Amino acid sequence: ICSVLQYVCHKESLTIPDTLAKRIAEKSERNLRKAILLCEACRVQQYPFNDDQVVPDCEWEVFLRETAAMIITEQSPKRLLEVRGRYYELLTHCIPPDIIFKRILTELVANCDGTLKAEVTQLAAQYQAQSQLGSKAIFHLEAFTAKFMRIYKQFLEEGLESMGF
């Protein structure tokens, strides 16, 4: 990925430091398309490049993080509808359902304890597998989110009860 970034930058009459190319390659998670987009974002952010330049997150990743935060802060039908709209937004911007499942799961389990992490991960795997068999990924994403909301709300309520509230 670093050599491709060097090549693309050379063709664009840009010079990119090796350290920045390596950080972009690491952040791209072995995805060449994402690496080139990150390099372009760095170019827009600042040129000439610096060795210690910050590699920005992709907008859709920030959007997904915000979506997960919405799920964690409120578990209600209204919030589920809002999250559904955000999933539609991601799908219409060609973010694959598998990536959405993976990223939303990563963000959600960060707020769970050990036993809940295992249950949520198994749940996500189940709904992701079903989404590959079905025709509409949105149904499976929404079903996973609704189930997570129910489990997480129950987890929070049990935690409050154990504390005497």
From TrEMBL:
Pfam families: RCF1-5-like_lid (PF21960), RFC_C (PF22534). Gene3D superfamilies: 1.10.8.60, 1.20.272.10. Transmembrane segments: none annotated. InterPro entries: DNA_pol3_clamp-load_cplx_C, DNA_Rep/Repair_Clamp_Loader. GO terms for molecular function: DNA binding; DNA clamp loader activity. SUPFAM superfamilies: post-AAA+ oligomerization domain-like. It comes from the Eukaryota. GO terms for biological process: DNA repair; DNA-templated DNA replication. GO terms for cellular component: DNA replication factor C complex; nucleus. Subunit of the replication factor C (RFC) complex which acts during elongation of primed DNA templates by DNA polymerases delta and epsilon, and is necessary for ATP-dependent loading of proliferating cell nuclear antigen (PCNA) onto primed DNA. Subunit of the RFC complex, an heteropentameric complex consisting of a large subunit RFC1 and four small subunits RFC2, RFC3, RFC4 and RFC5; the RFC complex interacts with PCNA. Forms an heterotetrameric complex with RFC2, RFC4 and RFC5; this complex has ATPase activity but is not stimulated by PCNA. The heterotetramer of subunits RFC2, RFC3, RFC4 and RFC5 interacts with RAD17. Interacts with CNTD1; this interaction facilitates crossover formation. This is Replication factor C subunit 3. It comes from Amphimedon queenslandica.
